[in-house]
Amino acid sequence: MAAFPFEIAATDGAARTGVLKTARGDIRTPAFMPVGTAATVKALTVDQVAATGADIILGNTYHLMLRPGAERVSRLGGLHRFMRWGKPILTDSGGFQVMSLSNIAKVTEEAVTFASHIDGSRHVLSPERSVEIQADLLGSDIVMQLDECVAWPAEESRAAEALRLSARWGARCKAAFGEREHQALFGIQQGSTIEALRRESAERLVEIGFDGYAIGGLAVGEGHEAMCEVLDYAPGLLPADRPRYLMGVGKPVDLVEAVARGVDMFDCVLPTRSGRHGQAWTWNGPINLKNARFAEDDTPLDEASSCPASRDYSKAYLHHLVKAEEILGQVLLSWHNIAHFQALTAAMRAAIAEGRFEAFRRDFRSAQRTG
Question: What angle do CA 238, 243, 247 make, to 5 degrees?
């Protein structure tokens, strides 16, 4: 029996819409999770994030264990209280950041040992420690297993080695997690872009048994087309009655194409990172507010949006803020981008429920431009 009921309300082709019911509230799927790396969605208050329609955010185990420290967050009442967010939180395991950010990472059967990118201090992250940090100290609602994510491209033998270690670590995470009524544990499928390895990984995870399943090891440089090729089969290898979470993805077109292939949940730093660099995502694709053509453009980013940042400020004003390097520009564009991603998932939920997802997908793609 899974910790959180997952009710699929409608399907349209492989696309699904439903609700993952947690103790801290419902997560409507497809769902986009804003990334709150260091107990904050960068540049935004939790009230701003909630107002965009976000049902859940993501916290980062690696960053929080280093600063301010997981034990400190626990002493201060857990991550929800610490950052004043009352809705669900998913925490990643820390494994990806260990591989990508730490100065020295040594992976053994037992654990990964690494040096902090902040001060060089040495840390050991085992499957058991990852679960302890996420579930017991931070108090997240959805806990991710510790896994090894290999860089792309990967030799088949290396990808196979990583997926098998990840499966063994997944079993250890499950044992450490035990049975919990108000928290869920997700396993992570690995296998790079190799179908046979993805299948093996899924079979190993299903045998262990998790509350939900993530597709890991994508958005690591393989590109949109290669990612879609993997998603043509990878979600279908995972149980249909549990949530499927594509980690670290992505651009709006990535979300639409992944939903078309049966994915339910996403996270990505893109909305806020783009916003801090003057880029706004719109229904017609991304635009760069640094561009001189917006200097006297009196129209808002999205006049139909309920988000004040999208609706109430002109592109000319946003252009000025970005060019003047005013902090408010970063705040407003981050806020707008998060709101846009939430509007996109809401539009997909409605399209699936009404049986018109393929038309939505076609129209969405035709409206996109780059620049």
Answer: 85
Rounded CA-CA distance 312/309 in Å is 6
Split at pLDDT 50, 70, 90, the class of 202 is very high
The per-residue pLDDT of the chain, averaged, comes to 96
| Cα 97–chain centre separation | 14
For residue 45, what are its two tokens?
A: 């208050």
Instruction: Give the active site residues.
Output: 92, 267
Non-local CB neighbours of 315 within 8 Å, separated by 6+ positions: 289, 294, 297, 298, 299, 300, 301
Closest to 245 (Cα-Cα) out of 368, 91, 353: 91
Q: For residue 125, what are the contacts with CB-CB under 8 A and spacing of at least 6?
A: 62, 65, 94, 95, 98, 111, 112, 113, 114, 146
Q: C-alpha distances in angstroms, 330 versus 1, 172, 267, 278?
A: 44, 42, 20, 7
First to last CA, the chain: 47
Measured between alpha carbons, how far is residue 117 from residues 114, 124, 146, 295, 326 in Å? 9, 14, 19, 40, 28
Q: State mean pLDDT over 359-370.
A: 91
pLDDT tier for residue 85 given thresholds of 50, 70 and 90:
very high
Round to whole Å and give the CA distance between 170 and 310.
Answer: 42
Q: What is the pLDDT of residues 240-270, one digit of tens each?
A: 999 999 999 999 999 999 999 999 999 999 9
Reply yes or no on whether the pLDDT at 186 is more than 60.
Answer: yes
Confidence of residue 371 (pLDDT cuts 50, 70, 90): very low
